[in-house]
Amino acid sequence: MTALPAGVRHIPGALDPQAQAELVDDIRAVVSQAPLFVPVMPRTGKPMSVRMSNCGPLGWVTDKERGYRYQPTHPVTGAPWPAMPARLLALWAELAGYPHPPEACLINFYAPETKMGLHQDRDEADFDAPVLSISLGDDCLFRVGGPERGGKTSSLRLVSGDIIVLGGASRLAYHGVDRIYPGTSMLLEKPGRINLTLRRVTLP
Ligand code: MD3
Ligand code: FE
Fold first, then answer.
1. How far is CA 66 from CA 37, 49, 157, 175, in A?
2. pLDDT (tens digit per residue) in 165-182
């Protein structure tokens, strides 16, 4: 574990257990309307191991034919994404330091064997806005590097209730999830981890 890259703000224990449970209830309600889907890599068609859904006006999706993109509707049901829960809007207003509301909340569900390879988030038009990430459930080993693939990386264990805000120089940093530590949290009914990323997509 070394120092985090400039622009990464880690807030350990940002959410107390009650706030975590309330967010899980919010996400359960979202996922009952907008079921988790299997994201598929562009061109190769290889399924990712993470399961996803979204809330807010826009959601991030990916499939073989059309690749990574944001769209206003669920890729399977065709329904508009559920509204962004008020609690998420309030956390953004408190912590993002950005004067416009988030447009997308990507919900990632990690079963115990799930990983997410190193990547950049660059499907948004607005890189001035930060990305705000909320961890719920089992701990994970998160890795973040610089804006170039192959650069030095730092690893960080993220715990349920932690928030990280990725802004400024870190907005285009490579990052990924190397592993989940099953059984480290009792928040969820089953082992696994939920990550919520709040994002601004369009230019204000
Ligand atoms: C660093 N999710 O959904 S969140 C993703 O834990 C994603 O589910 C991971 O990477 C997860 O794209 C990591 C933390 C995160 C999110 C966005 C970033 C870190 C970031 C954008 C730039 C730099
Ligand atoms: Fe990412």
1. 16, 19, 34, 23
2. 999 989 999 999 999 999
